[in-house]
Write a structure and sequence with these properties.
Elements lengths: L15 H13 L1 H5 L6 H15 L13 E7 L5 H9 L4 E6 L2 H4 L6 E4 L14 E6 L5 E5 L2 H10 L1 H6 E9 L20 H6 L17 E6 L2 H16 L4 H12 L26 E8 L9 H8 L5 E7 L2
Parallel strand pairs: 1-2, 1-6, 2-5, 6-7
Antiparallel strand pairs: 3-4, 4-5, 7-9, 8-9
Helix pairs in contact: 1-9, 3-6
């Protein structure tokens, strides 16, 4: 029988100083990555449709105590199987299943292509600008074709998203682990988009609404425990620097106000923008924990691992209130 599990004997752990150097570099150079390329047209349109979908639930029963719509992101949802599972598990939330592959999404028999006919802030209205979507029978699941890092950037840069959306949970289920050492920087925790991923669950941190703020959570599953341990190490490095969404906004305000010299404009140094409550931005880590072999599979990969009797693991990074 095929062995799918990756362990430290197959792929040795990354040296701490190497990973630390990579993560710190991606944090400091985030502005360069942010401006390195425009958001793909199909992703911009998909994000606008997602916003439209969310706004249609305003004033309903799935808002939190700040009047924000509770949303769960299922990034890299593949065929969308996990998104529909999440839709049933969390009927009080909207599920946005996001994947860049039309081929994978099209494997879902319920999935139908749809043309974007309206948008909130139109980016591209050409007749051939399309993205694909499907809503569940329960009405709380939307599948969209989009580039993940671009979609996260849209979330972080949209005032409408910040004002009306609470990311209750963000799932990364069995992301490509890129086990070869040469592909380390393709892993999410060593990728330039890593700061964007973490900030998707932090956009409530600076609110002062008079009511208790809910924290979001990032949940990652893998059949490689070492991947999740290194993910936790990267999050620890993020926390050590005092990073957070509020900190990032202060940096942007400073740049726009011209308070940095020319050579510093493209570098983010979170330690320069710490607030008195910067510890509140730190993420609590739970895991990695091995999941039961009798679990109902959420994804096709999970079904394959469970069928072979191989271990699966989960780790949670939670933002406190």
């Amino acid at each position: 029988m095929t062995q799918y599990t990756i362990n430290d004997s197959i792929c040795p752990p990354t040296e701490h100083e190497v990973l630390k150097s990579i993560v710190q570099k991606h944090i400091h150079t985030l502005p360069r990555y942010w401006m390195s390329k425009p958001i793909a047209n199909h992703t911009a349109s998909a994000f606008e449709e997602a916003l439209d979908f969310v706004m249609s639930f305003k004033g309903g029963t799935i808002e939190n105590n700040q009047g924000k719509v509770k949303v769960i992101l299922d990034s890299g949802c593949g065929t969308g199987k996990s998104s529909f599972v999440l839709g049933k598990l969390y009927p009080d939330c909207l599920i946005l299943g996001i994947d860049q592959s039309l081929a994978r999404l099209s494997r879902n028999k319920s999935y139908q292509p749809a043309r974007n006919t309206s948008s909130i802030n139109s980016v591209d209205t050409e007749s051939n600008n399309q993205f694909e979507k499907h809503t569940s029978a329960e009405g709380n699941v939307l599948l969209i074709r989009a580039e993940l890092t671009d979609f996260w950037k849209c979330c972080i840069s949209s005032r409408l998203w910040q004002n009306h959306v609470h990311v209750h949970k963000h799932f990364l289920l069995y992301p490509n682990p890129y086990p070869k050492k040469a592909r380390l920087k393709n892993r999410f925790y060593a990728h330039p988009a890593f700061p964007l991923l973490l900030m998707t669950i932090m956009m409530d941190e600076s609110e002062n609404t008079g009511s208790e703020s809910e924290g979001g959570a990032l949940i990652v599953r893998s059949n490689w425990e070492g991947y999740l341990k290194e993910f936790a190490t990267a999050v620890g490095i993020w926390d050590e620097l005092g990073c957070g969404f509020d900190n990032w906004k202060k940096f942007l305000v400073s740049v726009c106000a011209g308070n940095t010299v020319e050579n510093e404009i493209l570098d983010w140094h979170p330690e320069n923008y710490l607030s008195y409550n910067s510890d509140s931005s730190k993420l609590a880590i739970l895991g990695p924990n091995r999941l039961s072999q009798h679990s109902e599979p959420w994804t096709n990969f999970e079904a394959k691992y469970l069928e072979c009797g191989e271990p699966i693991y989960e780790i949670t990074f939670s933002k406190g209130g």
